[in-house]
Amino acid sequence: MTLLCERCCGPIHRSTEPLRLTWHRVPDERGGPARWLQSAVHALPCEEPDVGEWDTIRRGAAPAALRWAAERDDHR
Ligand SMILES: [Zn+2]
User: Fold this and answer.
1) Which of the residues 1, 3, 8, 23 has the least number of beta carbons within 10 Å of its own beta carbon?
2) How far does residue 62's CA lie from ligand 1's centre (Å)?
3) HEC-encoded secondary structure of the chain
4) Taking the domains of the chain in order of start, what are their residue ranges?
5) How far is the CA of 50 from the centre of ligand 1 (A)?
6) Pick from 53, 51, 66, 58: which is nearest to 10 by CA?
């Protein structure tokens, strides 16, 4: 089972990375007994998320975004 870090949403590899487990009490909306859910976080500082090949310089340069901006640039 793969665990996801509650802080950075990255996977935690149980066999190679130290982790901390935390219990959270979740009240039942219908008045029943509360449930306890366990979550995990990296015990070491979280790493920067992998954003893949995306070049942040290109943000907003999508053709649809340029059309949208041009339609609102008529200053009427
Ligand atoms: Zn993390």
Assistant:
1) 1
2) 31
3) CCEEECCCCCEECCCCCCEEEEEEEECCCCCCCCEEEEEEEECCCCCCCCCCCCCHHHCCCCHHHHHHHHHCCCCC
4) 1-44
5) 12
6) 51
**Per-residue confidence (pLDDT) for residue 58, from 0 to 100:** 65
Two structure tokens written together for 16: 């190679």
Q: Quote the pLDDT of residue 67.
A: 78
> How far, in Å, is the centroid of ligand 1 from the Cα of 8?
4
- State pLDDT tens for residues 18-74: 999 999 999 999 999 999 999 999 999 998 866 667 666 766 567 777 777 788 766
Evaluate if residue 10 carries a pLDDT over 70.
Answer: yes
- Please give the distance, rounded to the nearest whole angstrom, from the Cα atom of residue 53 to the centre of ligand 1: 21
Q: What is the pLDDT of residue 50?
A: 66
